[in-house]
Specification:
- The protein is an all-alpha fold and 109 residues long.
- The protein is 80% helix and 0% strand.
- The protein is elongated, with a radius of gyration of 18 Å.
């Protein structure tokens, strides 16, 4: 039982990290492709510096969609960001719940 829950927490944590990276990378792409076009970003720049500031960075998606109404790539990136944010919240809740169950079963053993 403990091994299954432990592996579940590890797998959920991996998916949580992937969801956060998807959000950060796509926010960087949106920011440097549609908002701040003065900075030229390389692929290395997008993949490095994956800090939490980008996860919580406020970007006005409605304003961008109004400025570029026919840009399907922008709309797809915004959908990925919103999906990644929702997924990361759900996965973080599952991590907390599984960790709580592990602690409970460990104490009742």
């Amino acid at each position: 039982m403990f091994k299954i829950l432990g592996v579940t927490v590890i797998l959920i944590s991996i998916f949580f990290i992937i969801a956060i990276q998807i959000v950060i990378i796509n926010k960087k792409i949106v920011y440097y492709s549609w908002i701040d076009k003065s900075n030229s970003m390389t692929i290395h720049s997008y993949l490095s510096f994956l800090d939490g500031d980008w996860f919580f960075k406020k970007i006005d998606f409605n304003k961008l969609v109004n400025e570029y109404p026919n840009d399907k790539k922008l709309k797809r990136k915004i959908q990925l960001i919103k999906l990644g944010q929702k997924l990361s919240i759900i996965l973080s809740a599952l991590i907390v719940i599984n960790a709580g169950v592990l602690i409970y079963f460990d104490q009742t053993r």
